[in-house]
Amino acid sequence: MSERLAGRSAVITGGGLGIGRGIAEAYVQAGANVLIAELNEEAGAKAATELREQYGANVEFVRTDVADRQQVQDMIATAVEHFGRLDVLVNNAWGGIPYARLEKTPEGSVRAGFEVGAMAAFWGMQAAFPELSKHGTGRVINIASLNGVNAHMYSVAYNMAKEALRTLTRTAAREWAEHQICCNIICPGAKSDAYNRMAAASPENAARMDAANPMGRLGDPLDDIGPVAVFLGGDDCRYLTGNTLFVDGGSHINGVQWAPNVD
Ligand SMILES: NC(=O)c1ccc[n+]([C@@H]2O[C@H](COP(=O)([O-])OP(=O)(O)OC[C@H]3O[C@@H](n4cnc5c(N)ncnc54)[C@H](O)[C@@H]3O)[C@@H](O)[C@H]2O)c1
């Protein structure tokens, strides 16, 4: 991959594992400075060390719980302090909300989902705006899900948060177009750590998902999701904003029927 993000700086939430880790590596390969903001301290530190050692890249890790507004604001400040500028914010972190039928979903799950999945991006975007609007290079990439778009079953907290995130992104795209900030959404399909956990809990679901994918496989975080995130973070996407890109081998076209096992 050419150095399409040379001189640019990015914050990637949840960048220690899975899709976030893949995007972080793709950004490093494209020449960007990267701040990995991650709740899992071990995974975040390991990812930053590996990327520094493998690529000689300018990669930092800051332990961050994106459900905490102050920590999100500190994350943005840390990136600016380390790199002197911030061009790209990737809101990718998600975790910890159990699957349940709608009628059995505790209100707390919905609230927690909103904080990690939607409020975190809102806080991050507000805090990053002064930097994102400085150089005409500002980009926001929010990671949503076909799960929300298609209203898959037994994940109402997830679906609500992800669809709020999409309209946040589109609203920012409209309001911030005058600042040349492009805001887009990726709905990915990839074999991440979360996918591996799901596959271990429900191999039959995982097999169904693979078989239902038009390309016959779920994607790879680095090689399939990474390049699209690089495109959305760079100059090639300067006239593309407010879009949802399904980076999923085509599985959104006819939809993928799936549901986790719940009581
Ligand atoms: N894997 C897929 O096929 C798929 C499909 C649709 C959407 N997504 C979305 O892609 C994104 C990444 O998912 P993934 O599959 O790589 O998941 P993952 O569980 O493999 O990685 C998520 C990362 O976020 C981190 N994280 C969790 N809570 C956090 C918090 N409060 N603060 C900071 N970091 C936190 C985790 O530690 C982990 O490193 C998520 O937003 C997910 O909803 C993934």
Could you name the key traits of this structure?
49% helix; alpha/beta; 263 residues; 7-stranded parallel beta sheet; binds nicotinamide-adenine-dinucleotide; single chain; globular
Q: Could you walk me through the main structural features you see in this protein, from its secondary elements to its overall organization?
A:
The protein has 263 residues and is α/β, with parallel strands linked by helices. The protein has helices at 18-29, 41-55, 69-83, 107-132, 146-149, 156-176, 193-201, 203-212, 221-233, 251-254, and strands at 9-13, 33-38, 59-63, 88-91, 139-143, 182-188, 244-247. A 7-stranded parallel β-sheet has the order 3-2-1-4-5-6-7, sandwiched between helices. The chain starts with 8 loop residues before the first strand and ends in a 9-residue tail after the last helix. The model has no long low-confidence stretch (mean pLDDT 96). Nicotinamide-adenine-dinucleotide is lined by residues 13-14, 16-20, 38-40, 43, 64-67, 92-96, 116, 143, 145, 188-190, 192-195.
Question: How helix-rich are the residues, as a percent range?
Answer: 40-55%
Give the N-terminus to C-terminus distance in angstroms: 46 Å
Order of helices and strands: EHEHEHEHEHHEHHHEH
Rg (C-alpha, Å): 17 Å
Cofactors and ligands:
nicotinamide-adenine-dinucleotide
**Largest sheet entry:** 7 strands, parallel
Shape estimate: globular
Number of helices: 10
Overall pLDDT level: 96
Record field, number of beta strands: 7
Tell me the structural class. Answer: alpha/beta
Strand content: 5-15%
Strand order of the largest sheet: 3-2-1-4-5-6-7
Low-confidence stretches: none
